[in-house]
Amino acid sequence: MRARFAEQDAAARRAAVEEQIDHAEPRHEPEVRVPLLAAHAEYLETAYDQIDADYGSVAGFVRDRLGVSDAELSRLRGRLLEPD
Asked: Considering the entire predicted model, what is its pTM?
């Protein structure tokens, strides 16, 4: 599922990122700026794998590394996630 999410609508996301970069950092060409901010599926998978290895889950990372309580995490999920 993670890889599918990362690949969904990649062209639209790339265009949006390029537009944001143009406004934030106009002095460099897009071919220099965009790779620095791109989110490639294989990089994300590697990051998720490391999080799982170190913290057991993304929720564990958020709790243990970022210091977000279970109650705060629940509120964030309620605000940011669509119901199943």
From this structure: 0.53
